[in-house]
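User
New here, help please:
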Amino acid sequence: MKNKSDFIPSGGITSPGGFLAGAASAGIKYKNHPDLGILFSETACAAAAVFSTNKIKAAPVILSEKRLQDGKARAVVINSGCANSCTGGRGMKDAVAMAEMTAEHVGVAADDVLVASTGVIGTMLPMDSIGRGIAEIKLTTEGGHELARAIMTTDTVPKEVAVRADGFTIGGMAKGSGMIHPNLATMLCFLTTDANVEAGFLKEALKEAVDTSLNMVSIDGDDSTNDMVLIMANGKAGGESVIAGSRQAEVFQEALNKACIQLARALARDGEGATRLIEVNVKGAASLADARLAARTIVGSSLVKAAVHGSDPNWGRIIAAAGRSGAELEESKLYLEIGGICLVKGGAPVSYNKEKVVKHLDGDEVNIVLNLNMGNAGAMAWGCDLSEEYVTINSEYTT
């Protein structure tokens, strides 16, 4: 299908019509740092989400998952600095209270408000500060950029995107820098659209987009208790309902995938301590499942990450990761490129210019292509190098 969508420069979560956002500094972890915000739709929304697969789920995840059973939402309140995870009965009461305070502030029913939290596990939310912060939040069409900064924890930059397609817009923001691995990764991601999308198709479209993008990110192999990817569609752009099987459904899916892939790359590029983005492209797999399995295993390998950090063209680590991934493959069919330079053909090493490969590994983005030559399926995954700074960040996280 011809590409029918384009990125909007400096766009974000409030680029689609009818969405407002804002943030405040509640002092949850740091003083004078935005750490609390609200995303709000002026009209009713169809909504869908995917959540953490971790068996330990934070209170906001449990609450939001329950409230989304009817496929509707109007607002989400988000905090950073405290995960409100492993906090028992009080944690659930606090999540409910956050939703109720937000509902009163924006003028909607409490059941229409979702909650998301990120930060340190096992600490309680400072509810008095949060209450004051919610009351201070001013919702505007420009407030999305402020909200994208407020949800950051160890992120060094906000992650935002907006895509304009055939008569509608999709906006998005995400946070995540560490504790990220496939199975939704460990992140918060919020998407909005003014397209008129049928609730059932919206849920299917989100799952496909996440499987193609955010589920293909690995920073350090750890899954979180707070993962959440939410999409809200308010239909402000008008037009016929976007339903499965329609031409417009194909256009919407393409635009949603595009937005999510952009956010996935941004998350990987800003991994804790990262100096390089790694993109792994697996081709010629026997099935899509095999392609994704191999790509995720390679990009998640600590040995591959460490080699990239040291600009070491130790391609054996890539092949070994693919071999243990569980994907169907035969050594004699493997073809490997780094930076467009062939290192392995027919499962055997070939002569190559080592200086050129090292130069590519020294760059900001490292591209690895592995062709299994077993079929026609392919998949891409994203990650980052493993640096000494990652250890420093995570050895001092609560101190």
User: Anything to note?
Assistant: The two ends are 51 Å apart (CA to CA). The longest helix spans residues 247-269. DSSP finds eleven helices and 16 strands in the chain.
